[in-house]
Amino acid sequence: MIQLSTRDRIIKEADRLFYERGFDNTSFSEIAETVGISRGNFYHHFRTKDEILAAVIGERLAARRHLLEAWEARDTDAVSRIRSFIHILVTNQSKIMRYGCPVGTLCIELGKLDHPLQGEANKVMELFRAWLRRQFEALGCAKDAEDFAMHVLAFSQGVAVLASTGGDKEFIQREVKRMNQWIEEVAAGAIKF
Amino acid sequence: MIQLSTRDRIIKEADRLFYERGFDNTSFSEIAETVGISRGNFYHHFRTKDEILAAVIGERLAARRHLLEAWEARDTDAVSRIRSFIHILVTNQSKIMRYGCPVGTLCIELGKLDHPLQGEANKVMELFRAWLRRQFEALGCAKDAEDFAMHVLAFSQGVAVLASTGGDKEFIQREVKRMNQWIEEVAAGAIKF
DNA sequence: GTCTATAGTATGATAGAC
DNA sequence: GTCTATCATACTATAGAC
Q1: Closest chain B residue by Cα to residue A176
Q2: Where are chain B's structural domains?
Q3: DSSP line for A25-77
Q4: B112 vs A162: CB contact, 8 Å cut-off?
Q5: What is residue A3's predicted lDDT score, i.e. its pLDDT?
Q6: pTM, full prediction
Q7: Closest Cα partner for A135 from A182, A71, A52?
Q8: Rounded to an integer, what distance in angstroms lies between the CA atom of residue A157 and that of residue B59?
Q9: Cβ(A109)–Cβ(A22) below 8 Å
Protein backbone atom coordinates (compact mmCIF):
# COMPACT_ATOMS: atom_id res chain seq x y z
CA MET A 1 0.00 0.00 0.00
CA ILE A 2 1.70 3.13 -1.28
CA GLN A 3 1.07 6.40 0.49
CA LEU A 4 -0.73 8.81 -1.83
CA SER A 5 0.72 12.28 -2.37
CA THR A 6 -1.25 15.21 -0.97
CA ARG A 7 -2.15 16.19 -4.51
CA ASP A 8 -3.53 12.73 -5.26
CA ARG A 9 -5.41 12.67 -1.98
CA ILE A 10 -7.03 15.99 -2.88
CA ILE A 11 -8.08 14.67 -6.29
CA LYS A 12 -9.47 11.51 -4.74
CA GLU A 13 -11.57 13.33 -2.12
CA ALA A 14 -12.67 16.04 -4.56
CA ASP A 15 -13.78 13.31 -6.96
CA ARG A 16 -15.91 11.71 -4.26
CA LEU A 17 -17.36 15.01 -3.02
CA PHE A 18 -18.14 16.32 -6.52
CA TYR A 19 -20.04 13.09 -7.11
CA GLU A 20 -21.89 12.94 -3.80
CA ARG A 21 -22.61 16.64 -3.24
CA GLY A 22 -22.18 18.15 -6.69
CA PHE A 23 -19.35 20.33 -8.01
CA ASP A 24 -20.81 23.76 -7.24
CA ASN A 25 -22.02 22.68 -3.83
CA THR A 26 -18.59 21.44 -2.75
CA SER A 27 -16.36 24.14 -1.26
CA PHE A 28 -12.58 24.29 -0.94
CA SER A 29 -13.00 24.20 2.83
CA GLU A 30 -14.89 20.91 2.65
CA ILE A 31 -12.28 19.25 0.46
CA ALA A 32 -9.42 20.59 2.61
CA GLU A 33 -11.21 19.44 5.77
CA THR A 34 -11.80 15.95 4.38
CA VAL A 35 -8.20 15.61 3.24
CA GLY A 36 -6.99 17.01 6.56
CA ILE A 37 -5.07 20.04 5.34
CA SER A 38 -5.59 23.79 5.63
CA ARG A 39 -7.24 25.89 2.93
CA GLY A 40 -3.97 27.72 2.36
CA ASN A 41 -2.12 24.49 1.68
CA PHE A 42 -4.91 23.52 -0.69
CA TYR A 43 -4.15 26.53 -2.87
CA HIS A 44 -0.54 25.45 -3.06
CA HIS A 45 -1.67 22.40 -5.04
CA PHE A 46 -4.58 23.87 -7.02
CA ARG A 47 -4.84 27.56 -7.73
CA THR A 48 -8.47 27.65 -8.86
CA LYS A 49 -11.55 25.51 -8.52
CA ASP A 50 -11.55 24.84 -12.24
CA GLU A 51 -8.02 23.47 -11.96
CA ILE A 52 -9.09 20.79 -9.52
CA LEU A 53 -12.19 20.03 -11.58
CA ALA A 54 -9.95 19.51 -14.61
CA ALA A 55 -7.75 17.16 -12.57
CA VAL A 56 -10.79 15.20 -11.36
CA ILE A 57 -12.17 14.85 -14.88
CA GLY A 58 -8.73 13.80 -16.13
CA GLU A 59 -8.52 11.18 -13.42
CA ARG A 60 -12.00 9.90 -14.24
CA LEU A 61 -11.15 9.67 -17.92
CA ALA A 62 -7.99 7.67 -17.18
CA ALA A 63 -9.78 5.35 -14.75
CA ARG A 64 -12.60 4.60 -17.22
CA ARG A 65 -10.14 4.06 -20.03
CA HIS A 66 -8.31 1.48 -17.94
CA LEU A 67 -11.58 -0.19 -17.03
CA LEU A 68 -12.65 -0.51 -20.66
CA GLU A 69 -9.23 -1.84 -21.62
CA ALA A 70 -9.41 -4.42 -18.84
CA TRP A 71 -12.79 -5.63 -20.13
CA GLU A 72 -11.47 -5.81 -23.64
CA ALA A 73 -8.58 -7.96 -22.39
CA ARG A 74 -10.77 -10.19 -20.21
CA ASP A 75 -13.88 -10.67 -22.37
CA THR A 76 -13.09 -12.13 -25.76
CA ASP A 77 -16.50 -11.62 -27.36
CA ALA A 78 -18.34 -8.33 -27.88
CA VAL A 79 -21.54 -9.49 -26.17
CA SER A 80 -19.68 -10.21 -22.92
CA ARG A 81 -17.99 -6.83 -23.14
CA ILE A 82 -21.25 -4.95 -23.54
CA ARG A 83 -22.70 -6.97 -20.67
CA SER A 84 -19.71 -5.94 -18.54
CA PHE A 85 -20.57 -2.33 -19.26
CA ILE A 86 -24.22 -2.81 -18.31
CA HIS A 87 -23.16 -4.63 -15.17
CA ILE A 88 -21.67 -1.39 -13.74
CA LEU A 89 -25.23 -0.58 -12.68
CA VAL A 90 -25.26 -3.66 -10.44
CA THR A 91 -21.68 -3.24 -9.19
CA ASN A 92 -22.24 0.39 -8.16
CA GLN A 93 -25.86 -0.15 -7.19
CA SER A 94 -25.85 1.45 -3.75
CA LYS A 95 -23.98 4.59 -4.79
CA ILE A 96 -26.09 4.99 -7.93
CA MET A 97 -29.25 4.70 -5.86
CA ARG A 98 -28.02 7.61 -3.76
CA TYR A 99 -26.23 9.90 -6.19
CA GLY A 100 -27.04 8.74 -9.71
CA CYS A 101 -24.31 8.26 -12.33
CA PRO A 102 -21.08 10.25 -11.67
CA VAL A 103 -20.61 10.88 -15.40
CA GLY A 104 -24.16 11.88 -16.29
CA THR A 105 -24.81 14.05 -13.24
CA LEU A 106 -21.56 16.02 -13.71
CA CYS A 107 -22.32 16.63 -17.41
CA ILE A 108 -25.79 17.86 -16.53
CA GLU A 109 -24.55 20.11 -13.73
CA LEU A 110 -21.74 21.68 -15.77
CA GLY A 111 -24.24 22.24 -18.58
CA LYS A 112 -26.50 24.25 -16.28
CA LEU A 113 -23.53 26.19 -14.90
CA ASP A 114 -22.47 26.88 -18.50
CA HIS A 115 -19.04 25.79 -17.29
CA PRO A 116 -16.00 26.00 -19.61
CA LEU A 117 -14.99 22.41 -18.71
CA GLN A 118 -18.35 21.04 -19.89
CA GLY A 119 -16.69 19.67 -23.02
CA GLU A 120 -14.06 17.87 -20.95
CA ALA A 121 -16.73 16.19 -18.82
CA ASN A 122 -18.59 15.12 -21.95
CA LYS A 123 -15.45 13.33 -23.11
CA VAL A 124 -16.07 10.60 -20.52
CA MET A 125 -19.48 9.96 -22.06
CA GLU A 126 -17.82 10.10 -25.47
CA LEU A 127 -15.32 7.47 -24.37
CA PHE A 128 -18.13 5.07 -23.45
CA ARG A 129 -20.01 5.79 -26.66
CA ALA A 130 -17.01 5.14 -28.91
CA TRP A 131 -16.12 1.95 -27.01
CA LEU A 132 -19.69 0.60 -27.20
CA ARG A 133 -19.82 1.50 -30.86
CA ARG A 134 -16.73 -0.59 -31.54
CA GLN A 135 -18.26 -3.54 -29.72
CA PHE A 136 -21.44 -3.37 -31.80
CA GLU A 137 -19.34 -3.10 -34.94
CA ALA A 138 -17.50 -6.25 -33.90
CA LEU A 139 -20.95 -7.81 -33.59
CA GLY A 140 -21.60 -7.06 -37.23
CA CYS A 141 -23.95 -4.11 -36.72
CA ALA A 142 -21.89 -1.80 -38.91
CA LYS A 143 -24.75 0.45 -39.95
CA ASP A 144 -26.52 0.60 -36.59
CA ALA A 145 -23.50 0.44 -34.27
CA GLU A 146 -23.68 4.15 -33.42
CA ASP A 147 -27.41 4.01 -32.79
CA PHE A 148 -27.08 0.91 -30.59
CA ALA A 149 -24.22 2.45 -28.61
CA MET A 150 -26.32 5.53 -27.88
CA HIS A 151 -29.24 3.30 -26.91
CA VAL A 152 -27.18 1.38 -24.35
CA LEU A 153 -25.79 4.63 -22.95
CA ALA A 154 -29.24 6.20 -22.70
CA PHE A 155 -30.53 3.08 -21.00
CA SER A 156 -27.82 3.16 -18.34
CA GLN A 157 -28.33 6.88 -17.72
CA GLY A 158 -32.09 6.48 -17.44
CA VAL A 159 -31.81 3.63 -14.96
CA ALA A 160 -29.33 5.66 -12.89
CA VAL A 161 -31.64 8.70 -12.74
CA LEU A 162 -34.69 6.66 -11.78
CA ALA A 163 -32.80 4.51 -9.30
CA SER A 164 -31.76 7.66 -7.44
CA THR A 165 -35.31 9.04 -7.30
CA GLY A 166 -37.37 6.33 -5.74
CA GLY A 167 -36.12 3.21 -7.48
CA ASP A 168 -35.07 0.06 -5.64
CA LYS A 169 -32.55 -2.72 -6.22
CA GLU A 170 -35.14 -4.86 -7.95
CA PHE A 171 -35.82 -2.11 -10.46
CA ILE A 172 -32.14 -1.94 -11.45
CA GLN A 173 -31.91 -5.72 -11.72
CA ARG A 174 -35.08 -5.97 -13.81
CA GLU A 175 -33.80 -3.33 -16.24
CA VAL A 176 -30.36 -4.90 -16.47
CA LYS A 177 -31.99 -8.23 -17.26
CA ARG A 178 -34.16 -6.57 -19.90
CA MET A 179 -31.17 -4.87 -21.50
CA ASN A 180 -29.11 -8.09 -21.52
CA GLN A 181 -31.99 -9.77 -23.31
CA TRP A 182 -32.02 -6.97 -25.87
CA ILE A 183 -28.28 -7.41 -26.44
CA GLU A 184 -28.81 -11.12 -27.11
CA GLU A 185 -31.48 -10.30 -29.69
CA VAL A 186 -29.20 -7.75 -31.36
CA ALA A 187 -26.38 -10.32 -31.46
CA ALA A 188 -28.74 -12.90 -32.96
CA GLY A 189 -29.62 -10.39 -35.66
CA ALA A 190 -33.25 -10.29 -34.57
CA ILE A 191 -33.29 -6.51 -34.19
CA LYS A 192 -32.98 -4.39 -37.29
CA PHE A 193 -33.95 -1.03 -35.86
CA MET B 1 -54.42 37.91 -21.66
CA ILE B 2 -54.61 38.38 -17.92
CA GLN B 3 -51.79 40.23 -16.16
CA LEU B 4 -49.96 37.88 -13.81
CA SER B 5 -49.51 38.93 -10.19
CA THR B 6 -45.97 39.70 -9.03
CA ARG B 7 -45.99 36.48 -7.04
CA ASP B 8 -46.95 34.44 -10.09
CA ARG B 9 -44.34 36.19 -12.22
CA ILE B 10 -41.69 35.31 -9.62
CA ILE B 11 -42.76 31.66 -9.65
CA LYS B 12 -42.73 31.58 -13.44
CA GLU B 13 -39.25 33.08 -13.77
CA ALA B 14 -37.85 31.04 -10.86
CA ASP B 15 -39.22 27.91 -12.51
CA ARG B 16 -37.41 28.75 -15.74
CA LEU B 17 -34.14 29.72 -14.03
CA PHE B 18 -34.11 26.67 -11.74
CA TYR B 19 -34.47 24.54 -14.85
CA GLU B 20 -31.92 26.33 -17.03
CA ARG B 21 -29.28 27.18 -14.43
CA GLY B 22 -30.06 24.85 -11.56
CA PHE B 23 -31.62 25.63 -8.18
CA ASP B 24 -28.46 26.25 -6.16
CA ASN B 25 -26.84 28.27 -8.90
CA THR B 26 -29.82 30.64 -9.20
CA SER B 27 -29.68 33.61 -6.82
CA PHE B 28 -32.47 35.82 -5.51
CA SER B 29 -30.86 38.74 -7.32
CA GLU B 30 -31.12 36.95 -10.66
CA ILE B 31 -34.78 36.11 -10.18
CA ALA B 32 -35.57 39.63 -8.97
CA GLU B 33 -33.67 41.14 -11.89
CA THR B 34 -35.46 38.92 -14.42
CA VAL B 35 -38.87 39.77 -12.95
CA GLY B 36 -37.93 43.45 -12.77
CA ILE B 37 -38.31 44.04 -9.03
CA SER B 38 -35.87 44.81 -6.22
CA ARG B 39 -34.46 42.16 -3.91
CA GLY B 40 -36.27 43.72 -0.97
CA ASN B 41 -39.60 43.42 -2.71
CA PHE B 42 -38.77 39.83 -3.51
CA TYR B 43 -38.60 39.00 0.19
CA HIS B 44 -42.06 40.44 0.65
CA HIS B 45 -43.40 37.58 -1.48
CA PHE B 46 -41.04 34.76 -0.47
CA ARG B 47 -39.16 34.78 2.80
CA THR B 48 -36.68 32.01 2.10
CA LYS B 49 -35.25 30.27 -0.94
CA ASP B 50 -36.92 27.04 0.11
CA GLU B 51 -40.28 28.81 0.10
CA ILE B 52 -39.96 29.72 -3.55
CA LEU B 53 -38.65 26.25 -4.39
CA ALA B 54 -41.74 24.77 -2.74
CA ALA B 55 -43.93 27.11 -4.79
CA VAL B 56 -42.14 26.16 -8.01
CA ILE B 57 -42.48 22.44 -7.30
CA GLY B 58 -46.16 22.94 -6.41
CA GLU B 59 -46.71 24.78 -9.68
CA ARG B 60 -44.93 22.05 -11.63
CA LEU B 61 -47.01 19.36 -9.95
CA ALA B 62 -50.24 21.18 -10.82
CA ALA B 63 -49.17 21.82 -14.42
CA ARG B 64 -48.21 18.17 -15.01
CA ARG B 65 -51.41 16.97 -13.39
CA HIS B 66 -53.44 19.12 -15.78
CA LEU B 67 -51.40 17.87 -18.74
CA LEU B 68 -52.00 14.22 -17.82
CA GLU B 69 -55.72 14.91 -17.31
CA ALA B 70 -55.91 16.60 -20.69
CA TRP B 71 -54.34 13.55 -22.36
CA GLU B 72 -56.72 11.26 -20.54
CA ALA B 73 -59.62 13.34 -21.85
CA ARG B 74 -58.29 13.57 -25.42
CA ASP B 75 -56.86 10.09 -25.99
CA THR B 76 -59.43 7.37 -25.51
CA ASP B 77 -57.05 4.39 -25.60
CA ALA B 78 -54.11 3.68 -23.29
CA VAL B 79 -51.60 3.22 -26.13
CA SER B 80 -52.27 6.74 -27.45
CA ARG B 81 -51.96 8.12 -23.93
CA ILE B 82 -48.57 6.52 -23.35
CA ARG B 83 -47.45 7.75 -26.78
CA SER B 84 -48.52 11.26 -25.75
CA PHE B 85 -46.25 10.97 -22.73
CA ILE B 86 -43.30 9.80 -24.83
CA HIS B 87 -43.96 12.59 -27.31
CA ILE B 88 -42.96 15.21 -24.68
CA LEU B 89 -39.38 14.44 -25.71
CA VAL B 90 -40.15 15.66 -29.23
CA THR B 91 -42.28 18.60 -28.15
CA ASN B 92 -39.64 19.94 -25.76
CA GLN B 93 -36.73 18.77 -27.90
CA SER B 94 -34.69 21.98 -28.03
CA LYS B 95 -34.92 22.72 -24.29
CA ILE B 96 -34.17 19.10 -23.38
CA MET B 97 -31.11 19.14 -25.62
CA ARG B 98 -29.84 22.14 -23.65
CA TYR B 99 -30.92 21.49 -20.07
CA GLY B 100 -32.13 17.90 -19.85
CA CYS B 101 -35.44 17.01 -18.16
CA PRO B 102 -36.70 19.61 -15.64
CA VAL B 103 -38.07 16.88 -13.37
CA GLY B 104 -35.09 14.52 -13.42
CA THR B 105 -32.40 17.19 -13.13
CA LEU B 106 -34.11 18.85 -10.14
CA CYS B 107 -34.51 15.52 -8.33
CA ILE B 108 -30.83 14.72 -8.90
CA GLU B 109 -29.68 18.16 -7.77
CA LEU B 110 -31.79 18.22 -4.60
CA GLY B 111 -30.54 14.73 -3.83
CA LYS B 112 -26.93 15.90 -3.92
CA LEU B 113 -27.78 18.98 -1.85
CA ASP B 114 -29.53 16.68 0.64
CA HIS B 115 -32.34 19.21 0.43
CA PRO B 116 -35.44 18.86 2.66
CA LEU B 117 -37.73 19.37 -0.35
CA GLN B 118 -36.23 16.41 -2.18
CA GLY B 119 -39.32 14.35 -1.43
CA GLU B 120 -41.59 17.04 -2.88
CA ALA B 121 -39.61 17.11 -6.12
CA ASN B 122 -39.80 13.32 -6.35
CA LYS B 123 -43.60 13.60 -6.24
CA VAL B 124 -43.59 14.87 -9.82
CA MET B 125 -41.78 11.72 -10.92
CA GLU B 126 -44.21 9.74 -8.76
CA LEU B 127 -47.14 11.41 -10.54
CA PHE B 128 -45.85 10.23 -13.93
CA ARG B 129 -45.14 6.75 -12.62
CA ALA B 130 -48.62 6.28 -11.17
CA TRP B 131 -50.26 7.64 -14.31
CA LEU B 132 -48.24 5.40 -16.62
CA ARG B 133 -48.97 2.46 -14.38
CA ARG B 134 -52.71 3.07 -14.73
CA GLN B 135 -52.36 3.18 -18.51
CA PHE B 136 -50.54 -0.15 -18.59
CA GLU B 137 -53.15 -1.64 -16.29
CA ALA B 138 -55.84 -0.48 -18.73
CA LEU B 139 -53.81 -2.31 -21.37
CA GLY B 140 -54.23 -5.53 -19.42
CA CYS B 141 -50.69 -5.69 -18.01
CA ALA B 142 -51.91 -5.99 -14.42
CA LYS B 143 -48.87 -7.85 -13.14
CA ASP B 144 -46.22 -5.93 -15.06
CA ALA B 145 -47.85 -2.49 -15.10
CA GLU B 146 -45.50 -1.10 -12.44
CA ASP B 147 -42.43 -2.53 -14.16
CA PHE B 148 -43.50 -1.15 -17.55
CA ALA B 149 -44.24 2.29 -16.08
CA MET B 150 -40.75 2.45 -14.58
CA HIS B 151 -39.27 1.30 -17.88
CA VAL B 152 -40.96 4.10 -19.84
CA LEU B 153 -39.89 6.65 -17.20
CA ALA B 154 -36.30 5.41 -17.23
CA PHE B 155 -36.28 5.52 -21.01
CA SER B 156 -37.43 9.15 -21.10
CA GLN B 157 -34.90 10.17 -18.45
CA GLY B 158 -32.06 8.41 -20.24
CA VAL B 159 -32.87 10.04 -23.57
CA ALA B 160 -33.04 13.44 -21.87
CA VAL B 161 -29.62 13.01 -20.23
CA LEU B 162 -27.92 11.84 -23.41
CA ALA B 163 -29.64 14.43 -25.60
CA SER B 164 -28.20 17.16 -23.38
CA THR B 165 -24.66 15.76 -23.52
CA GLY B 166 -23.88 15.43 -27.19
CA GLY B 167 -27.10 13.98 -28.59
CA ASP B 168 -28.86 15.40 -31.64
CA LYS B 169 -32.48 15.63 -32.84
CA GLU B 170 -32.15 12.44 -34.81
CA PHE B 171 -31.09 10.54 -31.68
CA ILE B 172 -34.22 11.64 -29.81
CA GLN B 173 -36.43 10.75 -32.76
CA ARG B 174 -34.83 7.33 -33.20
CA GLU B 175 -35.34 6.52 -29.52
CA VAL B 176 -38.93 7.77 -29.52
CA LYS B 177 -39.63 5.58 -32.54
CA ARG B 178 -38.03 2.61 -30.81
CA MET B 179 -40.06 3.15 -27.65
CA ASN B 180 -43.31 3.53 -29.60
CA GLN B 181 -42.55 0.22 -31.26
CA TRP B 182 -42.00 -1.37 -27.86
CA ILE B 183 -45.37 -0.02 -26.65
CA GLU B 184 -47.08 -1.61 -29.66
CA GLU B 185 -45.49 -4.95 -28.81
CA VAL B 186 -46.56 -4.66 -25.18
CA ALA B 187 -50.12 -3.83 -26.29
CA ALA B 188 -50.11 -6.82 -28.63
CA GLY B 189 -49.10 -9.01 -25.70
CA ALA B 190 -45.83 -9.95 -27.37
CA ILE B 191 -43.73 -8.86 -24.41
CA LYS B 192 -43.98 -10.83 -21.23
CA PHE B 193 -41.02 -9.45 -19.34
C1' DG C 1 -46.39 46.56 -2.41
C1' DT C 2 -42.34 48.57 -3.48
C1' DC C 3 -38.06 50.48 -2.45
C1' DT C 4 -32.99 51.42 -0.21
C1' DA C 5 -29.74 50.14 3.09
C1' DT C 6 -27.45 46.90 5.55
C1' DA C 7 -26.38 42.88 8.51
C1' DG C 8 -24.19 38.43 8.68
C1' DT C 9 -22.11 34.58 6.58
C1' DA C 10 -19.60 31.70 3.33
C1' DT C 11 -17.03 31.54 -0.54
C1' DG C 12 -12.93 31.70 -3.84
C1' DA C 13 -8.54 33.41 -3.67
C1' DT C 14 -3.94 35.83 -1.98
C1' DA C 15 0.16 37.06 1.02
C1' DG C 16 3.55 35.87 3.75
C1' DA C 17 5.64 33.40 7.95
C1' DC C 18 7.69 28.92 9.17
C1' DG D 1 4.89 21.92 1.76
C1' DT D 2 2.29 23.51 5.30
C1' DC D 3 0.37 26.86 8.05
C1' DT D 4 -2.24 31.39 9.76
C1' DA D 5 -4.14 35.47 8.63
C1' DT D 6 -6.66 38.33 5.44
C1' DC D 7 -9.22 40.32 1.25
C1' DA D 8 -12.89 41.01 -1.89
C1' DT D 9 -17.03 39.33 -3.35
C1' DA D 10 -21.57 37.25 -3.56
C1' DC D 11 -25.12 35.46 -1.23
C1' DT D 12 -29.40 34.85 1.88
C1' DA D 13 -31.96 37.49 4.73
C1' DT D 14 -33.74 41.60 7.68
C1' DA D 15 -35.18 46.44 8.96
C1' DG D 16 -37.47 50.23 7.99
C1' DA D 17 -38.85 54.37 4.92
C1' DC D 18 -42.32 55.57 1.38
Answers
A1: B151
A2: 6-187
A3: T--HHHHHHHHT--HHHHHHH-SSHHHHHHHHHHHHHHHHHHHHHHHHHH--S
A4: no
A5: 74
A6: 0.96
A7: A71
A8: 27
A9: yes
Find, among B114, B131, B69, the residue nearest to A20 by Cα: B114
Q: Classify domain B6-187 by CATH number.
A: 1.10.357.10
pLDDT tens sequence across A148-163: 999 999 999 999 999 9
What is the reported pLDDT for A2? 64
Query: For strand C, is any atom closer than 7 Å to the CB of B5?
Result: yes
Establish whether the CB of B48 is closer than 7 Å to any nucleic acid atom in strand D.
yes
| Nearest nucleotide from residue B41 CA, by C1' atom | C2
Rounded Cα gap, residues A39 and B74, in angstroms: 60
**Cα–Cα dist A171/A92, whole Å:** 14
Q: Do A22 and B113 touch (CB under 8 A)?
A: yes
Per-residue pLDDT tens digits for B103-156: 999 999 999 999 999 999 999 999 999 999 999 999 999 999 999 999 999 999
Distance A23 CA to D11 C1' (A): 18
